[in-house]
Amino acid sequence: MLEKWVGAVNGIIWSNPVIYVCLGVGLLFSIMTRFLQIRHLKEMIYLVFKGKSSEAGVSSFQAFTMALSGRVGTGNIAGIALAVGMGGPGAIFWMWVMAFIGSATAFVESTLAQVYKVKRDGLYRGGPAFYIEKGTGLKWFAVIFAVVALVAMCLLLPGTQSNSIAVAFHSSFGIDMKVSGILVVVLLALIIFGGVKRIAKVAEVVIPFMALGYILVSFYIMMTNITALPSVFSLIFRSAFGMDSVFGGMVGTAIAWGVKRGIYSNEAGQGSGAHPAAAAEVSHPAKQGLVQAFSVYVDTFLVCTSTAFMVLFTGMYNVKGPGGGYIVHNLPGVEEGTQYTQAAIESVFPGFGSSLLSITLFFFAFTTIIAYYYIAETNMSYLVPDHKAKWPMLVLKLVILGSTFYGTVVKESALAWTLGDMGVGIMLWVNLIAMILLAKPALLVLKDYERQRKQGLDPVFDPERAGIPNTECWSNGYQQPADELTITIEPGKLQAWESK
Questions:
Q1: Is the pTM of this model over 0.70?
Q2: What is the pLDDT of residue 401?
Q3: What is the dihedral of CA 67, 70, 71, 73, to 10 degrees?
């Protein structure tokens, strides 16, 4: 009963018109920003490693890794393999398209989050709920997003990640799924009860390590099958446009799965990446917007593509036809998703490939659950004043711990994935409308940033000069963190100072 109801709702949320709207909005923002994802690529990489944290905010790199912890999850392993299994190799091309145009979408939402961020309990907070209220004045609309985000992040999405961990551990090590659930919940509790700074520290250490390791494994598998490189690229492009004899009738399915899995993975337009973006200490909102645009590239073009290439280079996948049955059946009896990637790695690293992927999947999925908690906490902070937030925050922690454990005991992985898709979809619907309404402030910020860069300046945001009102944290001008202040000494006092 639950499966049928969830499937019906999900079918509406992810209907074909919605999928094409996602593509259209990303293309619109790309055109409006004059394809900043190409023009400012070098600047994006530079800004990731520039800047420091403060008492109120995290560094650009920490915000980057916090956002990546949400973007890089089980969707990068199981979700991409699932896209190949359901949409064929052509789904990978449309996933790339979604990432390219989605980086402009990520810039808009993350820049807005910085512009309209606030300081709550001594820390920067922001995200769609905040910029909807401050940018449009529609408080009810902002509350809708905050409630939707809480439902998605606390109830619908954590189970997808924890279920993948439990299934992988059970398959590789024979560990009971409930035991895996207890382990994940205990570790999660230790981190989320430590606050935002602890979340940032964990993400800063774990994310680069796990992403680089996964990419290196993929690169090795590609090198061992390098002769397949031309045929794999040809297969992806031919399948994407219906020119392949096997996958010719799957163009619509390829687009749908590529877009859906691309959004699920890189989260551009969903609003989730905007939350950690608001927490960054930067002198200009566009800086963090560019950093978050680059995080979409890292997520999709590096991590997701690594999974796709491992599966396609080794031939370890099945593809279901639109009318039922298999049109490619290389792995009889193997369920779509994680097991394709496990089989691909196992074919090159026999004996421990499956175990290696399970450990990697744990880090991917676990850090994503941490990101979900942070996003949920930010939206609870929006709904509840600081002096009344103690008990709601405690309930929030307990709920996300409970839904995480529930995901590990759900025997049908398909249900967990459908719930996750529904969570992504409902946030996407609300946030895309808000972003269209607030495109002008984001474009004004980009224009101001580019003007200062042309003058050879390190851009500093002045909302009055940019023509953007109601910017709480920027109203008195940018204040440098104490450890970044420049100390000057009068020439006459220099000798005396040096002698001390």
A1: yes
A2: 94
A3: 150
